[in-house]
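ok new one. same drill as before - structure tokens go in, u give me an amino acid for every spot. 495 of them this time. try not to just spam alanines like last time pls lmao
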């Protein structure tokens, strides 16, 4: 890897330094040509910010069919992806991929990269629209593979007509001049290559080309030899790419919303939450669903045991899990565990993304959907009840919170943690009877709505056992609905 520091002649200490990365190895000489033109572009500009350029060239060999119609780009995809990921890890702000063939698949890679990758076609389109707006026909020198991909037509989107060499000229002159044994990629830059390229350009002019755009990064290496012999303007696509990149903004790309899920607290509740996210998403195909990254970590210490004073503190385990989700590109984090929310205020300051607060969303739901309700019951673990997290948020909303008496709280804990409880895999029978009894107790004491404040409780089948006309609130479903809403709007939740 070569790293070059570039500081403009003026404003050396006042402008923020930017780090560029160039993926080399996809055409060794062409990559070096781009790097040289980036350096020259910086030297010519008085107002350009200070910059470092990292040029990374690894050993990469294509088979003999490179650029042909039958070329398989799979290995090249992995090469580009790995190079960009390494640059991202080193703090590169803006990356360049000087390879037209690679741009046919670059959109498969960029959604997985959290830095700006400059598009060659964006640069070319910008230059043509600014300096050749009257042109209606463009001749393109590119490989057969790129030609067949249709990427030039998509990039210019009907603004101009694209013309290519006829098949025989394409194969015997253009492809041979670049990829042949005496071609540019083999290190030959003499009269034979230049004459072949001049012939191809003349052929394109005869087909109506008003300007010629190289779609091979090797062609600009010979630009000074070609231009005097070509009847129309010949664009230096490497220079255009370099200048466009050096003037680009450094903002990171806007990423599609990805939800991070702290799983394993408990495991079944995590699956239930994900199922509800999927069910609540309006989707006609797989790609319409929300991206989720989940760490199923049942080894996070028991929250209830800690809150009632007998277990390990789960704070660090929760924070570490959230940080791993953040590192994996999550936009926001959901924790489908009511009791774990007793620790949210501790860990949120150490994260750069928000935790969607399930308890807050439950109270918001009550206020907006059940305005007639003033007395709310809570069925939750003894740890959640003892922590007071629901008390604080419910009472601050002007609602009264009711909790079970000791005997009924014991039944709630049996429904959750008992030998025939939901954490042991039971969803009917004894656990349903315990839960139904606790619901009846709160209803008799005036609860108008009851929060099933442990994410396993909604898994228990209690429909047949509960006769009271009371609203049962499922925090998991409310949290899932909020996360779906955030994904749809692209907004982040308040932390």
């Amino acid at each position: 890897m070569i790293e070059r520091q570039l500081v403009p002649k003026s404003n050396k200490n006042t402008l923020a330094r930017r780090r560029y990365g160039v993926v080399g190895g996809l055409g060794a000489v062409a990559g070096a040509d781009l790097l040289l033109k980036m350096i020259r572009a910086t030297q010519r500009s008085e107002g350009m910010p200070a910059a470092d350029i990292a040029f990374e060239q690894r050993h990469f060999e294509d088979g003999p069919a490179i650029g042909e119609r039958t070329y398989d780009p799979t290995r090249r995809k992995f090469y580009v992806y790995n190079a960009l990921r390494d640059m991202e890890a080193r703090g590169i702000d803006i990356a360049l991929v000087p390879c037209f063939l690679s741009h046919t698949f670059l959109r498969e890679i960029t959604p997985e990269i959290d830095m700006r990758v400059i598009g060659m076609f964006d640069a070319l389109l910008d230059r043509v629209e600014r300096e050749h707006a009257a042109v209606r026909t463009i001749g393109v020198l590119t490989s057969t593979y790129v030609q067949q991909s249709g990427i030039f037509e998509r990039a210019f989107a009907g603004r101009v007509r694209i013309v290519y060499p006829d098949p025989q000229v394409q194969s015997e002159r253009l492809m041979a001049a670049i990829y042949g044994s005496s071609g540019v990629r083999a290190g030959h830059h003499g009269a034979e290559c230049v004459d072949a390229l001049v012939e191809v350009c003349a052929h394109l002019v005869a087909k109506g080309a008003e300007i010629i755009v190289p779609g091979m990064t090797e062609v600009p290496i010979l630009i000074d030899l070609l231009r005097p012999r070509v009847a129309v303007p010949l664009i230096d696509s490497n220079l255009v790419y370099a200048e466009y990149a050096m003037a680009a903004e450094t903002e990171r790309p806007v990423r599609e919303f990805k939800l991070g899920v702290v799983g394993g607290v408990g495991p079944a509740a995590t699956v239930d939450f994900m199922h509800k996210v999927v069910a609540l998403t309006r989707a006609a195909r797989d790609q319409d669903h929300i991206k989720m990254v989940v760490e199923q970590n049942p080894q996070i210490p028991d929250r209830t045991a800690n809150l009632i004073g007998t277990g390990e503190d789960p704070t660090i385990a929760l924070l570490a899990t959230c940080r791993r989700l953040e590192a994996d590109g999550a936009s926001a984090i959901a924790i489908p565990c009511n009791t774990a929310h007793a620790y949210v205020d501790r860990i949120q300051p150490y994260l750069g993304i928000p935790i969607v607060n399930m308890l807050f969303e439950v109270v918001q739901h009550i206020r907006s959907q059940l305005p007639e309700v003033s007395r709310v019951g809570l069925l939750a673990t003894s740890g959640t009840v003892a922590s007071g997290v629901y008390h604080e948020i419910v009472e601050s909303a002007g609602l009264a919170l009711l909790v079970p008496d000791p005997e009924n709280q014991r039944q709630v804990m049996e429904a959750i943690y008992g030998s025939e409880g939901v954490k042991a895999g039971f969803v009917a029978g004894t656990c349903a009877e315990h839960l139904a009894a606790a619901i009846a107790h709160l209803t008799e004491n005036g609860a108008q709505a009851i929060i099933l404040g442990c994410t396993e409780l909604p898994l228990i089948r209690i429909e047949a056992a509960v006769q009271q006309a009371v609203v049962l609130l499922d925090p998991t479903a409310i949290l899932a609905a909020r996360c779906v809403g955030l994904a749809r709007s692209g907004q982040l939740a308040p932390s």
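The chain has two domains: 2-246, 258-489. and btw The longest helix spans residues 28-44.
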